[in-house]
Amino acid sequence: MKKYIVLLLLLMTATMLQAQSFADLIAEVNQSVVTIKVLEKRNLGIGNPTGFTSAEGMGSGVLVGERKLYILTAAHVVANASEIEVTFANGTTIGATNRRIDQTSDVALLQLNNPASAIPAAKIGNSEKVRIGDDIFIIGNPLGLEHSVSRGIISGKHIEKNEYNQSRVQEFFQTDASINKGNSGGPMFNMQGEVIGIVSSILSFSGGFEGLGFAATSSIATEILQQRGRIWFGTDVIPMNAAFCKLFHVPQEGALLVQSVAESSPAYFMGLKGGYISMKVGDSEFLGGGDVILQFDDIPLNSSKNLNKFFDYLNTMENGKSYRVKILRDGEVKTLTWRMQ
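Below the sequence we write its predicted structure tokens.
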């Protein structure tokens, strides 16, 4: 009988120590997790090019890098932001700007206006070593509840490749850890406290969490840090196929329709204009009336292959160099010039 009591006490002690060590781990890594608030200007879509309204958004992110200047988050949280504000767990708030962005993998890199010197940056783990069934946890701001923790396992790993060069364009983990609106951009940690993913989205039919969440892997995120991601241009665009182009009298069989342009972005200073008329074609809803991008330098955007060339070309852009963008605006073809700074 005494043996069973001793065994039970040992099990209870081990469970308590494990719970305490997990709580300590949360307290340690939580310092690097941030709340991101963004301000966007959106056109009302009622036919007025200057009819904008301000919209606020919220997401999560994580401080990375030795210089303590960079935040990893989800691209869809900040892609169209005119203002970005980052707040840490200790209450420190610092402004930030988009640095690099990859909307295909849904990862973005922000640069803080000032280093977060007193705050420890998160360690980035090797997502290649992660196995299905591994324990993970997520910290973020679901439904505005800042620095909430959810725990689960890796349910799956999915990789999508570029059909032209077979390079990875998307790689994400599937998890059963609870993810809700506001979690986007937050870090997924392994049980060593290393970031192995950046929360992207949920698959839901009700609008709430239903057991399927996704996060871009740290391998993809690291490539963003190493400048795989393209320069943030500040536009929300829709690819136009041949039928779409014919419908809008575009003089080629492929292009990009500009939906919105973020203030103080390269596209804004170049002079690109977003849409201002709410339209629907089939099941697709969008803003019409904006610029149609036909060509970037010597790359016509008239095919999927050239679109991939265009996105790769954006990765090579250099400060001090001028770039040309050919657009269709109000039925007239024009060329805009922008000098990258």
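The first helix runs from residue 2 to 29.
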